[in-house]
Design brief:
- This protein has helices spanning 16-29, 41-48, 52-64, 83-104, 110-128, 134-152, 158-183, 190-201, 204-238; strands at residues 38-39, 69-70, 76-77.
- The model has no long low-confidence stretch (mean pLDDT 90).
- By secondary structure, it is mostly helical.
- The chain is globular and about 55 Å long.
Length: 239
């Protein structure tokens, strides 16, 4: 689905380097760039309506954060999807985010649950809408939902770790969203509602399970598609 907004949008002149970095970073986090896509500095500078220098610096920062890959020919690209990286990200996210949910469990207040319900209701509405900007909108609401919980944990150390993991997960989130649109076998917020209910009951095990079910749902969709692609390739080879 093509978004009217596009993967990137122009930025203003103030604090230019940081804003260029933030724009590209947000596009990666929200799965607006395809896995394996080459990012040309000149093209990005034109899209962002800026010079090439802040774009070059932003790409360098994102390469150092493992959100992008620098190839031998000086090309920078969005990392390709691999089973090894998929499994590694899924394990890391379940571990770190599960710990944040555990820490947040006793700190969440009634107003927090009201906010979480609002985020989820808005996400349900966004999924149901016929809107070209739906992938970006639903991703932003999903991010707001999760990080409302994580910030409630009060861990200044773990939040940057999770942000890095989400940044690296962008291509997988994009691929999963495309597969989910094809299958439509489960509401995109199904596990969010289960997580809210478990947190309200103060049940640690159920809360962590709902959170892990939500995280692994996306990764499992991509893993199944990789397995199917491998099977199709094998069938062609021996056909």
């Amino acid at each position: 689905m093509t978004s009217r907004r596009g993967a990137l949008s122009p930025v203003g002149r103030e604090t230019l380097h940081d804003r260029v970095y933030a724009e590209i970073r947000n596009s990666l986090i929200h799965g607006m760039l395809d896995a394996g896509a080459a990012l040309r500095i000149v093209d990005l500078a034109e899209t962002l309506q800026t010079s090439t220098m802040p774009v070059r610096e932003a790409l360098g920062r994102l390469v150092s954060e493992q959100a992008l890959e620098a190839l031998p020919n000086r090309t920078v690209r969005v990392p390709v999807i691999t089973r090894e990286k998929l499994d590694d990200l899924a394990r890391a996210r379940c571990l770190i985010e599960g710990e944040l949910v555990t820490q947040a469990l006793r700190r969440l207040k009634p107003e927090d649950f009201a906010a979480l319900r609002t985020h989820t209701e808005q996400c349900d509405a966004a999924f149901a809408a016929d809107d070209p900007d739906k992938p970006h909108h639903t991703s932003e609401l999903n991010h707001a939902f999760h990080f409302h919980i994580y910030r409630a944990a009060g861990s200044a150390v773990l939040i940057p770790v999770v942000e890095s993991l989400w940044l690296q997960s962008g291509p997988y989130v994009r691929a999963a969203a495309q597969i989910h649109d094809e299958l439509r076998d489960m509401s995109g917020t199904h596990h969010h509602w289960a997580l809210i209910e478990a947190l309200e009951r103060g049940e640690k095990a159920a809360s962590v399970k709902a959170l892990k079910d939500d995280i692994t749902r996306s990764f499992n969709l991509v893993r199944a598609r990789l397995t199917q692609a491998d099977a199709n390739e094998e069938a062609r080879a021996y056909g």
